[in-house]
Amino acid sequence: xxxxxxxxxxxxxxxxxxxxxxxxFTEGGCLTLGGLGAGKTSTVGExxxxxxxxxxxxxxxxxxxxxxxxxxxxxxxxxxD
Length: 81
Prior knowledge:
Number of helices: 3
Largest sheet: 2 strands, antiparallel
Number of strands: 2
Strand content: 5-15%
Helix content: 25-40%
Structural class: alpha+beta
Mean pLDDT: 78
Shape: globular
Low-confidence stretches: none
Order of helices and strands: EEHHH
Number of domains: 1
């Protein structure tokens, strides 16, 4: 499969050899489970969202945007800086 400049961009470098691309994120999805107060948003959720929102743009590809939906009223402020 040919590399796509948008889908195959690295969104999050997990280790020296493992990374999350936009293609992997959209094709495979992301499921985070845990009870109330387990840290789902403050760990996996925030890291993934910030990585998606902070992918640098280049001359051929615009940066990503996103929509954050939450029951907690203070959540959108976490990502607005």
